[in-house]
Design a protein that fits this description.
The structure is a single chain. The protein is an alpha/beta fold. It has 2 domains: 121 residues, Response regulator (Rossmann fold), CATH 3.40.50.2300; 132 residues, Response regulator (Rossmann fold, 3-Layer(aba) Sandwich), CATH 3.40.50.2300. Helix content is 49%, strand content 17%. Helix 9 links the parallel strand 9 and strand 10. The longest helix is centred in the first third of the chain and has 39 residues. The relative contact order is 0.12.
């Protein structure tokens, strides 16, 4: 091997050793730098709960989640928010089953139908995992407690308010989130019972929106085409009133159609301020979520809790909006 070859070989060897040294040094530096941050990220929780909503990105359920997460933070609970992206009972049931299989400490969910939810809730309870129903009860199941709206009463309030506002004369079309889910059924039934003694009020038809503002708008338009005598709507889910209002605003003069909506989403309140939606049923989703977490902790710790807690329900009209924020009303926190 010539002198130049020896020098090239030696230089190459040194370069390789130095490169490896730098790689090892920086590699160790990255690892030792990351380890402390990983340790800091580890948080100890007292319990692990899961909240399963009807629909993940539903604005109403985001308020329930917000309340539950606030309570989870206050009481040292790890809270997961999992469920179907769009309203789907099969996906909802799967989310509950997977949560139970992961052996969480407690599950909070709706009891959307007795036929499907009751046996699943009973199986979860038998495995030793407590279940609380939120917003919609499964009263025939072994669920530990229910917190949420008295859905029959809320429908009854809506009916009585409509009677007063229309002076007992209206041809009403009902658009409901579902014809098969417990809370929607009760909201329709309460309304029907409230108006049945009024000879001047006729329920023309009941249509389903599948908890979709797009479908609610489509159904409202179709109803107005098929039943021109309709001069009042009652929407039983948070998105129904918004969908109805969109159609009425576009195709009818304000004041021709009375609209009773549900919930206080910002868009609903804007329509109330504009005089397109006449009234809405107010629920307390934030409180439902917050109190559900506390109830679950109490159950796990052996404390006695009421089997049913009904959160407040009332009717809101334009005159009830806060003057400082006329187009919005935050959930009570």
């Amino acid at each position: 091997m010539g002198r130049l070859s020896v020098m090239a070989y030696t230089f190459g060897t040194l370069f390789f050793i130095v490169s490896c040294s730098f790689s090892i040094f920086y590699g160790v530096k990255v690892v030792t730098h990351d380890l402390p941050s990983e340790k800091k990220a580890q948080v100890k929780y007292n319990y692990h709960f899961v909240l399963v909503p009807e629909e993940l990105d539903n604005e109403y359920w985001r308020l329930v989640e917000k309340g539950a997460k606030a309570a989870a933070k206050d009481y040292g609970v790890m809270l997961e928010y999992v469920g179907p992206k769009q309203s789907n009972i099969d996906d909802h049931l799967k989310a509950i089953e997977m949560s139970a299989a992961s052996k969480v400490d407690g599950i909070m969910t709706q009891g959307l139908s007795d036929e499907q939810f009751t046996p699943l809730i009973n199986r979860v309870i038998e495995k030793g995992i407590p279940v609380i129903t939120v917003d919609t009860d499964a009263s025939n199941s072994k669920r530990m407690a229910y917190i949420g709206t008295d859905n029959y009463y809320s429908g009854y309030l809506a009916g009585k308010a409509l009677i007063a506002d229309t002076k007992g004369k209206a041809n009403v079309a009902i658009i409901t989130g579902s014809l098969y889910k417990n809370h929607q059924i009760q909201r329709v039934k309460g309304f029907e019972d409230a108006v049945k003694a009024e000879s001047g009020i006729q329920i023309i038809d009941v249509w389903e929106s599948d908890i979709s503002r797009v479908q609610a708008a489509e159904k409202a338009y179709q109803i107005l085409q098929e039943h021109p005598e309709v001069n009042a709507f009652y929407g039983t889910s948070a998105l129904d009133g918004i969908g109805i209002a969109q159609v009425v605003q576009k195709y009818k003069n304000n004041g021709q159609i009375y609209i009773m909506a549900f919930d206080t989403l910002p868009e609903t309140l804007t329509y109330i301020q504009k005089g397109i939606i006449n009234a809405t049923v107010v629920q307390e989703p934030y409180e439902m979520g917050y109190e559900a977490v506390i109830m679950m902790i109490d159950i796990i710790e052996g404390k006695k809790v009421p089997s049913i807690i009904h959160t407040n329900t009332k009717i809101l009209k334009v005159g009830d909006l806060p003057p400082s924020h006329p187009d919005r009303m935050e959930a009570r926190q």
